[in-house]
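chain below, 303 aa
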Amino acid sequence: MRKYLCEFLGTCVLVLFGCGVAVMTDADVIATSLAFGLSIVAVAYTIGKISGCHVNPAVSFAMWIDKRISTKDFIGYVIAQVLGAFAGSGLLALIINSTSMGDFKTVGLGANAFGDLTGIAGSNITMLGALVVEIILTFVFVLAVMGVTRDKKKENVAPIVIGLALVLVHLLGIKLTGTSVNPARSLAPAVLLGGEYLSQAWVFIVGPLVGAAFASLAIFFIDLEDLVTDKIVEKEELEAVKEIRQPEKKETPVVVETKKETKVETKKEPKKGTEKKVSKETPKEPKKAGRKPKNTTNEKRTK
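prediction:
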């Protein structure tokens, strides 16, 4: 439960500060990119050791494909992330409504968009173009996340690498689609704003998930050679251990077998000797005893 709470809080902070800076600065590329990147750095150092600081269903999806998290955790993470995104967007809407900027539906919540839809994106990019952009940006970001988190020696620098990777993809994508790479971050503002934003939300859900799947597949092939070499080394070590232990195992049964053979031979020899002596001696005694009385009687009669 603590992991899910961390994912909820982390996603809430990411959406509130990232989308909030985008709204306040009218989608300034540098400011918005740094806001999203620094939010990840701050959150990752806080909750990274507890939940891994995914704060993104696309990252959790890639981790699930790579079997780094269970199906139960994947579902729990996604639910917590979506709820956290709604909490962050809701807080941003309350802040905007409390200012003189106007209603949050007029000002916007940093929602992602494509085509001629007015808002932060507003680049007139096509639907297919937006989908391709989100796949590419998410692929690069998730690849960096999975690559730096697979080595435990890089735990201390992993949040910085992930934050800089998020800055990188935002620098390219802000003027194209607003840069989603995060289905939860895109879904919450779209639902609160409704209308055409909500009808376009599927692009910013499907695109990041496809990009994340490609990233996990790429990591698999990158790590494949290491896995093969590790298995070869393990086999060689096992064979070496078997060769060392084999002579010890062979000596012990030989000694036992020789002992058993000597015991069996010593027991059989006396039995054969005794049987022969008994068979020779027993028939002789009655013959001698029967002849002597016959001779004595014949001698007396002749006399």
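The chain has ten helices and no strands. The two ends are 128 Å apart (CA to CA).
thats it, cya
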